[in-house]
TrEMBL record:
Keywords: Coiled coil, Kinase, Plasmid, Transferase, Two-component regulatory system. GO terms for molecular function: phosphorelay sensor kinase activity; protein dimerization activity. It comes from Azospirillum baldaniorum. Residues 355-443 form the Histidine kinase domain. Gene3D superfamilies: 1.20.5.1930, Histidine kinase-like ATPase, C-terminal domain. The lineage of its organism: Bacteria, Pseudomonadati, Pseudomonadota, Alphaproteobacteria, Rhodospirillales. This is Two-component sensor histidine kinase. It comes from the Bacteria.
Length: 450
């Protein structure tokens, strides 16, 4: 409707401008016509006045029927110039006022100075012709304008028809429905700009639907990884911690029985047995302590609560080097001159960086059997990158690569995506495996500002 209103306003302005130009031209044309008619009337009036009596000359001139001219015997009164041509009363007064051309008179005087004849040029006929032309033209323009508005209504309505489908599709997207229907139904018809817009929204809906399916798949894999982690922890507690506690219970019971037997003095064999069982209890207690620390580290790395991130990563590398001395380990921490470096990251990012390195090292040793493993952490002002590479056989997707501990690939991808980062896992130049994560970061203390 606004577009049609603009078209109608343009047509109205065009009509007003055209009418103004026509009225100005008509005013000049009527004046020129009156001057020409007056010259003709003067010439004819002199000719008839020289032949005889003035009344007979006036009658003869009237019989000639000269257009726009009227002849009056003697001097014409000032009030009689506007009279005559009553038959053109259909011309509106406002239009005659717009033309603004008054009757023109010229007096023919004799040798004695007496007015013999007055020639009057009247514009009514000419004004009436101009009025008829403009009225017909205005009617034609009105019909043409209505036809143009009707055609514009149909054309604009047809061109903007996809907007309703696009609006409905966007409403469905806002409601979380990522299936907008057939793509052609959304993108077909209309002007090319709306076709491109509809095609873009349809592609966006398809990408959102694919992202939703991927999120559900990752969520399912994450739940599976969590369940697997719980099963592993439960198995370790049952198999190792339960067995160790049972052995401690047996040894402690035997020591208690030996100590309660009513003997004045323990034999050498009994003292040896008591000492051996006491050492076994101490050994089992140490194993239980190590097992509990391993489980706690898997649940929450205590190093991050005690050390900066850089030292925690160094401690992680040292621990793995102690366990796997045949593997060459390297750690490279590079910073861009930020005041606190990687230690200035917030708690969530610090934990994520540590978990990424921890899980990547576990996967490298579990699946790759490498001889070289390197961990690189680089921090810029706006992001931090974690890269873990090994020289194993390379990464191959498939059922055999399901992660057994830590976050797992699905868990890492979900955590990185939740922080707005990216995670890429693949072969490093066709050999070995490369895990690369890029995480956006905000310096500690500025999270609320962001």
């Amino acid at each position: 409707m606004r577009m049609l209103a603009l078209i109608g306003l343009f047509l109205a302005l065009l009509a007003v401008a055209g009418a103004a130009v026509m009225i100005a031209n008509a005013r000049d044309a009527v004046r020129a016509e009156m001057a020409s008619a007056l010259d003709l009337g003067i010439a004819v009036g002199w000719a008839e006045a020289g032949r005889g009596a003035i009344p007979d000359a006036v009658a003869a001139l009237d019989r000639l029927g000269l257009r726009h001219l009227r002849f009056i015997a003697g001097e014409a009164a000032s009030g009689s110039l506007g009279e005559g041509n009553v038959g053109h009363g259909a011309v509106p007064g406002w239009f005659a006022a717009l033309i603004g051309v008054a009757p023109q008179a010229h007096a023919l005087t004799g040798s004695d100075g007496r007015v013999l004849l007055t020639v009057v040029a009247e514009p009514q006929d000419e004004v009436a012709e101009v009025w008829e032309d403009m009225r017909d033209l205005a009617l034609a323009m009105l019909v043409e304008g209505l036809l143009l508005l009707g055609a514009a209504w149909m054309a604009v309505g047809r061109a903007l028809a996809p907007l309703a489908r696009i609006e409905a599709a966007v409403r469905r997207l806002r409601q979380g429905v990522y299936e907008p229907g057939p793509r052609g139904g959304l993108a077909g018809g209309g002007v090319p700009e709306l076709v491109r817009l509809g095609t873009g929204i349809a592609a966006l809906a398809e990408e959102l639907a694919a992202a939703g399916r991927e999120n559900r798949r990752l969520g399912q894999r994450l739940i599976e990884a969590q369940d697997r982690e719980r099963r592993d922890i439960a198995r370790e507690i049952h198999d190792e911690l339960g067995a160790a506690l049972f052995a401690i219970k047996v040894d402690a019971g035997r020591i208690l029985r030996l100590s309660e037997e009513p003997k004045p003095e323990a034999t050498i064999s009994e003292r040896v047995e008591i000492a051996g069982r006491a050492r076994a209890v101490l050994s089992m207690a140490a194993d239980v302590h190590r097992l509990s620390r391993r489980i706690l580290v898997r649940l929450r790395p205590a190093l991050l609560d005690q050390l900066p991130l850089g030292e925690a990563l160094s401690g992680l590398i040292v621990e793995w080097a102690r366990r796997e001395p045949e593997v060459r380990w390297s750690l490279d921490v590079a910073e861009d001159g930020t005041p606190d470096g990687i230690d200035g990251l917030d708690e969530v990012l610090r934990l994520t960086v540590f978990r990424l390195a921890q899980e990547s090292l576990v996967n490298a040793l579990r699946h790759a059997r490498p001889t070289n493993v390197s961990v690189t952490v680089r921090r810029w002002t706006d992001r931090v990158e974690v890269v873990v590479t090994d020289d194993g056989p390379g990464f191959r997707e498939g059922p055999g690569t399901a992660e057994q501990g830590g976050l797992g690939i699905a868990g890492m991808a979900e955590r990185v995506r939740a922080l707005g980062g990216t995670l890429r896992i693949g072969s490093d130049g066709g050999q070995g495996t490369r895990v690369a994560a890029c995480l956006p970061c905000v310096p500690a203390g500025l999270e609320g500002v962001a």
